[in-house]
Amino acid sequence: MKLLKIETGNFMADGGALFGVIPKLMWSKEYPADGNNYCNLTMRCLLIDMGDRKVLIDTGAGTKQSDKFYSWHYLNGEATLLNSLVSAGYQPDDITDVVLTHLHWDHCGGCVVYDEKKRPQLMFEKAKHWVSKTQWDNYVQPNSREGVVYFPDNMMPVYEAGLLNFIEHDGMIMDGIEVRLLNGHTQGNVLPIIHTPQGAIAFMGDLIPVLPSIRLPWVSAYDTQPLESIKEKQEFLNEAVQKHITLFFEHDYYVECCTVKKVENRFVADKQFNLEVFASAIQ
Hints:
The protein contains nine helices and 15 strands. By secondary structure, it is an alpha/beta fold. It is globular and about 55 Å long.
């Protein structure tokens, strides 16, 4: 098994939205912001190469939305999904499975691209695309908060091509890859956990978007059910401490991975390291 990070670029998010009710006086000591209160976030995906199966978790924002939309989010960085895959030695047709944590624009936008005539084309034409059934239902009939972050052209071409696989329960979706269904950030949010000979690594997505969000009350204002998010985070972090699960951050610009320990009644980051450190131990 090989694990590789696939960088797809960065975007800026308001720090108040990222950290919810936590005062800037507190969170700005842990995560930098610019003069407009914006924090830089990555869209860091994960590729799991198991030989016969090559699994990509999330696909970044893509490039299909309007310039006006992207201007609100200040996309930055040179990395793209395709270039990162090619640099790692892969082509889109090599990918057999795409696991999507959820269908907000910054997690699934790379599944579909436009050709020169603005016609949608699948990035991964040979891949099964995994998404929870609850999240799909939410995407098709969104609530008033999430409607603005779901775009039909990000996923409907995948559905119409018959490439969607719905996840309806917690469990293993293939050898070595477990999924848990959560509801705090959005209904049917998927937490993937990759089991390796050297231990498990969890793709945190928006359950814990950046390292400072390990603190239980530090819940994003984007979460639709913040109290549920806190409960889900606490349950997962207790397990991460007990089972020595490594956390892989999708959005933290500064830290790729960490382990967790419990100090009195608080969860805190222990060791911080790049994915390559974890990946080299299993090759």
